[in-house]
User: Fold these one by one.
Assistant:
Number 1:
Amino acid sequence: MERVIEILEDLHPEVDFETCTTLIDDEILDSFDIVTVISELSDEFDITIPPQEIIPENFNSAKALYAMVKRLED
């Protein structure tokens, strides 16, 4: 999870990703950020994020992103 938070902090250092659960709902992450996050996670964890996983629920928090990564690693 630490690496997921680091990736997010590179984009928005002002956000507390440990507690924020509204990254999409509050428009903290925009479409360009999402593309960057997908690319970084794909490279870092050697996963492919299919289009059906690119939904707000998977991107609203660092915890949700990490859960998606773990699912895709299995």
Number 2:
Amino acid sequence: MTGASEQRFHFRLMAFMYKFRDFYAPRKAILEETGIRKGFHVLDYGCGPGGYVGPLAELVGPTGMIYALDRHPLAIKMVEKRAAKKHLANVIPIQSDGQTGLPHKSLDVILLYDVFHDLDQPEKVLKELHRVLKPGGLLSFSDHHLGEQEIVSGLTKEGLFRLAEKGRKTYSFQKID
């Protein structure tokens, strides 16, 4: 296999495994910890194949917005396919490995799930997420590759976020203005 075809194979395998994960551990149960409501604007940073898109759409309703960002082109295609299949006009995929392209202080909630451990420049990403999050906005975090100390110090050391709450499945960080 060439490098590109090997990457596609691994991504498709991961997406297939997520279908089983989502069946046994529905994404909506995790999202309950975020307090997302109708009309919210939410970014799923590192969205992968879009497992959170459907449950997010239910929570934000037709007046909310969902931005699904990933660096992998197959992830973006899968999100587009999910959104089209469910007729979700309020889902905007973003292909990027860092910058969101979103306006300052435009998001209510950001999901940063199982991607932080894999970031080349986590400080740069956190600065971008801080920039686009509204005052009082929530950064919902989970990464099963990291321990609690790594999570808390990794997100608070730049002085951009503070730990607001530790939930059953996620950590909630608030933006520091």
